[in-house]
Structures are given as C-alpha cells and as structure tokens.
Amino acid sequence: MMHFSRVALDNGVYIHPRHNWFVSMSHTDEMVARALSGTEIAFRAVRDQFDDG
C-alpha cells in the first residue's frame, strides 16, 4: 500500500495509506478526474512492481 500511496502522491493525489478514502459533493469533476488519473498511474506501478510475467 505504501508504494501505491507514494506513486499517487508523486502524481498529485494524496491518499493516506492507512485510512479510509472519501469522496464528497465538494469535489469537482476536475478533482475527481485528476484523482482517477493519478491512481491509474499508481495501480500500474504496483502491477509492474509485482508482475511476474
């Protein structure tokens, strides 16, 4: 989880590695899009770190 959180942070998304994540109505479409983009990169980084193939 720490690797995911670090890569997400490097891509502009702060995700605490040990707490719940929340979305609220105060988040704009742009904020959500930025979060999805940053977490997509983080998910790829985790996959690449642990991929055996």
Structure description:
The protein is mostly helical and 53 residues long. It has one domain (2-50). It has 2 helices and no strands. The two termini are 21 Å apart. The mean pLDDT is 90.
Provide the fold topology:
Elements: H1 2-10, H2 29-50
Primary descriptors:
53 residues; mainly alpha
In short:
The protein is mostly helical and 53 residues long. It has one domain.
Rg over CA atoms: 12 Å
Total of helices: 2
Distance between the termini: 21 Å
The geometry reads as globular
Rounded mean pLDDT is: 90
